[in-house]
Amino acid sequence: MRRRGIRRHGAGNGRLLVGAIGGIGRQNELMSLRLCILLWECAGRAHDLAAFEDAVLALLPEHGGRILTRDRVVDRQDGDPLEVQLIEMPDEEALAGYLRDPVRIDLARTHDRDAVIARTQLIRVEPRG
Length: 129
Known about the structure:
The chain has 129 residues and is an alpha+beta fold. It contains four helices and six strands, in the order βββαββαααβ. It has a single domain (31-125), classed as Alpha-Beta Plaits (2-Layer Sandwich), CATH 3.30.70.100.
């Protein structure tokens, strides 16, 4: 039988996330927020969408967040997004701080976000198993 204990992980903002030692060893999902983000580009702006996302996703660690996966959809059908991201944030407050980050807002202006990204969909998800 494996022995289980508690490990505390700093979240970069003074909060503590609790995870298990042994077993899978992942952070307790109840203590974090996981989002699947779907992004659609405006016509002809796929490269610009990727450049904007490169810039803003680099800000995640400053808010205690991390990107788990970032993928481009292949063999797209009508209506499919261009990019699919899975990110994890410590909590709602951290997500709100990331979305309100003045650097992120400035990047949206600099990259002309509204002319680059046609649609964004955020889906709250949780791991299974």
